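A protein record in our archive is deliberately plain, so that people and models can read it alike. The tokens are whole numbers drawn from a learned vocabulary of local backbone shapes. For reference, a complete record is included directly beneath this paragraph.
>
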Amino acid sequence: MKSWKTTLLPPTASIRDAMRTLDQGSLRIVLVCDADQTLLGTVTDGDTRRGLLADANMEDAISSVMNKVPFSVRESTSRDQRLKLMKQHDLTAIPILDQQGRVLSLETLHQAMEPERRENPVFIMAGGFGTRLQPLTDHCPKPMLRVGDRPMLEHLVDQFVGCGFHNFYFSTHYLPEVIQAHFGDGSKWGVDIQYVHEDTPLGTGGALGLLPQTLPDLPLIMMNGDVLTKLNYAQLLRHHEVKGYDATVCVREDEHAVPFGVIETEDQLVINMVEKPTYRYKINTGIYVLNPDIVSSVRAGQRVDLPSLLESHRINNKRIGTYTSYDYWLDIGQMKDYQKAQKDIELYFGESDR
């Protein structure tokens, strides 16, 4: 894309100058600014056409045809908000201004629809044996079992790519060669994939100690490789950052209806009676966001489970928060879950089970 600065013209420029700029560029807009780059108005093909139809001259100043109250946004406006505004008002581009009204950049509709590129590392646990899915896993790691026409691990990678992530690490143990043969270095998906190998299982959190010391100083998203989900990882990360958590556990609300009356007692005396109550609680989805100091706290070769690791940090006054997801999520731990995934893949992901 050509530099947005090529769209800048002073208010004294002519309509001809504006038409030439519109014709030569691909951004389909002219930003009319003063010497301090303060936005005064915008000009589009429609503005010049309407001006000429109203008997304006090609040499007239563009200030005579510009839109003096154009739509604009602040730098703090989220990409989703910008996209919504452009779609709502049929805009192909929208200027981004600072607090003084000076132009900082120009967001195009194409840019807004593309996921923001994120440098945060993504760590996927793909080393499990999948014993409850035998014999399917006798010669195939569980994350490589096909859901529809692709391995479930590939569905995960595609979901992350769709949210702008490209920096992946896979933890392997059982049949690592199968995973590496399929994904390689990730170039087929336009991402970078590196592998860490657990010689012996280190629990759900121990593999963190095997990650390289060169990780970017950014929150890391960690999750199990046997999950099928439509979770928006960008929203999860944004929630983690806005809340200022040291670690975020992605949870789902679940409920259990007791089909009987429940009696609560104290010293054998009835203190409460509830007829067929429904208990609601939050369950762990196996998806986490971890700040760098949480990641680096795990030593190489240390065996630890994620809940124990986070609890130790919580006791030491770290902020351990939650993010409640209402998106589709399925933990494929048993055969009935795998069979459900085959039915859900077309319903929720628009892919056929071939």
Notes: The longest helix spans residues 335-349. Residues 45 and 69 are 16 Å apart (CA to CA).
